[in-house]
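Progress against Task 2.4 (sequence-to-structure conversion) is shown through the following example record, which the project officer requested during the mid-term review.
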Amino acid sequence: MEETAKLPATILVIFGITGDLSHRFLLPALAQVCSTSNLPKDFKVLGVSRRDVNVDELLRDNEKPLQKFTKIFQMNLNDPQDYKDLEARLTEMTQEMTISPQIIFYFAVPPAAVLPIIRHLGQAGLNGPETKLLLEKPFGFDLESARELIAQTTQYFPEEQIYRIDHYLAKEMAQNITVFLGSNAIFRDVWNSQFVEKIEIVAAEKIGIEGRAAFYESTGALRDVVQSHLLQLAALTLMEPCSEIFDFEEIPRRRLAALRQLQPPPPDKFDDFVFRAQYEGYSDEVGNPGSQVETFVNLVLSSTDARWQGVPIHLTTGKNLDQKLTEIKVTFKKTSASAANHLLIRIQPEESIELDLWVKAPGYDRKLQKLPLSFEYQQHFGRLPDAYEQVLVDAMSSNHALFASSDEVLASWSALEPILKHWGMHEDLYFYKPGSMVDEVLSVKSDQNQL
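C-alpha cells generated for the chain above:
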C-alpha cells in the first residue's frame, strides 16, 4: 500500500474501540480508507479500552491492514489520573512521528459518557489547538439539554475543533443533492413553490431496535432520526443552491438558513399533521408495559422561506417496516393539461435519481403512460464511499461542510420543541404490525379511530 501525504499527520484516539459502533462502522471504514491509500503518511490509532485488549483479536480479517497503526491504551474513563497518563502516552506517540500530528478524539461511547470525558480531557490539558472532537449523535435530548451540552463542550473546545457527525450528510447521494440542484438548470429554475406541490422525505428501517432498549426508551424515533437525519436532508433539499456547485464551505450556512425557517404546524393542527405510532410487541421487547415511546413518526412541516411558502414538507421514519430505504420525493404541480411529475432521489440503498415522465403510449388510442428516466450511481461509478469513510477523511482534512454545527443542532431542536411538549401532555400513540408498509402505518390512525 502506498500511503499519501494529502492529509496531515494524525493520531486518532478512539474511545470505545471495543464497542458495537467501532466494530460495525468505524473500524471497517478506517480499513477501507487504508486500502485506498488515503490515510495520512504519518498516522496512528490509539484505541481506548477499560479492559486489556489484544489488537490481533480486536481486528477482523479485513481490518488487519490497521494492525501496524493501532495500539491499545487501557484506562478508567472516570479517573483524572488516567487522563494524565493518556497525555503522556500521546506525547510519546507524537515524538515517534516525523511531523507534529493533530489529535482527533472519536467518541464511540454511550451518550451519557460523552460530556464527562470532554471535561476530563479539558481539565487534563488535552484540548490544545491541535486537537479535534468527533462526536456521534444524539446532541442533546431536547432544546434545553442541547444548549447545555454545547455550552459545556465549548467551555473546553472551541466550535472550530468540534465535528458533530450526521452520517446521512456524509452519504454520497446526500452530497449530490446540492450538486444536482446547482448544476442542472432544468431543476434549479423550478425549485420553488411556483412549481413544486410537496416534498416527502422517508427513512424506513426493516430492523427493530436490535437490543438497544435502554437507548431507545430514552430517545424514540423523533429524537433518533427526525431531529438529525431527516431535518438535515430537508435542509439540503430546501436550501438555496450554491452558485458554485462545489463550494462545500458555503453549504453549512445555507443549511442553517433553511433549518431556521422550518416550523411545525400550529398546535391546533397537530392531530392532522403530527402522527406517532409504535410497532406491536415493542413494549414487551423493552420490558416496559404501556411504553409511550414512538417507533414511527410522520410530520408535516412548513417553511417561512418565500421560495417554499405553501409547500408541505412530509418527514417520515419508522422501524420494523417492510423494507429499508431513505429517499426524497418531490412532486411537481400539474397543469390542467398534464399529469404531475415526480423526482425521486434515493439515498439508500441502490443510490439513484429517477424522474417520472408522461408519454403517449403506442397505439391507436390516445393514452398516457408513465415511464421512469433513471440514473443509478453504482451502475456507473461502482462502489460508493461509505459515510463513515467520508467522515474520517473530512475530519482529518478539517472540512466542516458535512458536519452539523451547534447552530444547526439548536435550530433542529427548536423546530421540534413544540411537538415534544405536546407529546409530553398527550397519549396519542397508535400501533402497527411489524413488517408493515409506510402507507399501511399511516392508515392505522383512521382504522383505529373507527373501532
